[in-house]
Design brief:
The protein has helices at about 20-30, 40-50, 70-80, 105-125, 160-180, 195-205, 210-215, 225-240; strands at about 10, 35-40, 55-60, 85-90, 140-145, 185-190, 250. It has about 260 residues and is of the alpha/beta class. It is globular.
C-alpha cells in the first residue's frame, strides 16, 4: 500500500531515540522528509546519522521552553518549505508514587508532558500545509505519543497516570477544532515496547530479567514490542492513507490494555 508520504515533511519531537526515532525511520523509508528534535545536540546528531538520509535534519529544543515549539515549526518550514504534520512526544516523566512525587516534580512534568505538547500541537496546526482543494483528512496530521496510562494506571508512574489522561482528552478536543480546517489529530498509546526507557524501568525494579518476564506474562502476545512495530503504526496514522482516522486513541501494546 502506498501511504502517500513521499514529498511530505514532518516534525518529530523527542525523537533522538526510541519510538520517535523508529517513526522517523518509517517516514523516511516512505519518502518523507523529517526534522527530529530532542534536548541535546549529541543524540540528535547520532540519530540523523543513523537515518543516513538527506531527508533528515535535527534541531535541539526543550519543550518546557515556551518559545521552542514555534522555533521548531519555523525551522522545519525554513529547511523544507512545508510542514505536513508532527509526531509529538515528550518522553517519560519521573517515576514515583502519589505520596512521593513532589510539587516541583509535578510542575516540571506538567510543563513537559501537557503544556509542552499543547504548545507544539498549536504551533504545528497554525502553520501546517493544508490544500483547501484536498479531500478533508488527506492534508496535515498530528499524532501525540501518550501511554496506556491514559486509560489504566501504571504502578510507579504517578505523574504519567495523572497527566496522560488529560492530554488524551485534549487530543479529542483538538480533533474537534482542527478537523474542519483539514488537520487530523490522533493519539497513540504504546505499551511495553523494548526502548531504553522501558528497559530502564525494568532495571529499576532490581532484577530486569524477572521484571520483563512478569510484564510479558501480562501481554497476550507474550512479548515486548519492537520500536519498528510502533514506528510503522505511527507512520500510517500520519499518512493520507489514514484519512478518516481522527480523534482516536490507538493502543500499540500487544493487547495488554484491558480498558475499552
Amino acid at each position: 500500500m502506498d501511504l502517500g508520504l513521499a514529498g511530505r515533511t514532518f516534525l518529530l519531537t523527542g525523537a533522538s531515540r526510541g519510538l520517535g526515532l523508529a517513526t522517523a525511520h518509517a517516514l523516511v523509508a516512505e519518502g518523507a522528509t523529517v526534522v527530529i528534535s530532542a534536548r541535546e545536540e549529541g543524540p540528535i546528531a547520532a540519530a540523523v546519522a543513523a537515518l543516513g538520509s538527506p531527508n533528515a535534519v535535527g534541531l535541539a529544543a526543550d519543550l518546557t521552553d515556551p518559545a521552542s515549539a514555534e522555533r521548531l515549526v519555523a525551522g522545519t518550514v525554513a529547511r523544507f518549505g512545508r510542514l505536513d504534520g508532527a509526531l509529538v512526544s515528550v518522553g517519560g516523566p519521573p517515576t514515583g508514587t502519589p505520596m512521593s512525587i513532589t510539587d516541583d516534580e509535578w510542575r516540571t512534568a506538567f510543563e513537559s508532558v501537557l503544556l509542552g505538547a499543547v504548545r507544539t500541537i498549536r504551533s504545528v496546526a497554525a502553520t501546517a500545509t493544508v490544500d483547501p482543494e484536498a479531500p478533508p483528512g488527506t492534508a496535515a496530521a498530528i499524532l501525540v505519543v501518550l501511554s496506556t496510562s491514559a486509560k489504566s494506571p501504571i504502578p510507579g508512574l504517578t505523574t504519567s497516570n495523572g497527566l496522560r489522561p488529560g492530554l488524551a482528552m485534549l487530543v479529542k478536543d483538538f480533533a474537534d477544532e482542527l478537523g474542519p480546517r483539514g488537520v487530523r489529530v490522533n493519539g497513540v498509546l504504546p505499551g511495553r515496547i523494548g526502548t531504553d526507557r522501558t528497559l530502564a524501568l525494568d532495571a529499576a525494579q532490581g532484577n530486569a530479567a524477572a521484571a520483563r518476564r512478569r510484564n510479558e506474562a501480562a501481554i497476550p502476545l507474550g512479548r515486548y514490542g519492537e520500536p519498528a512495530e510502533f514506528g510503522r503504526v505511527a507512520a500510517f496514522l500520519l499518512s493520507p492513507a489514514a484519512s478518516y482516522v481522527n480523534g482516536s486513541l490507538i493502543p500499540v501494546d500487544g493487547g495488554a490494555l484491558r480498558a475499552l
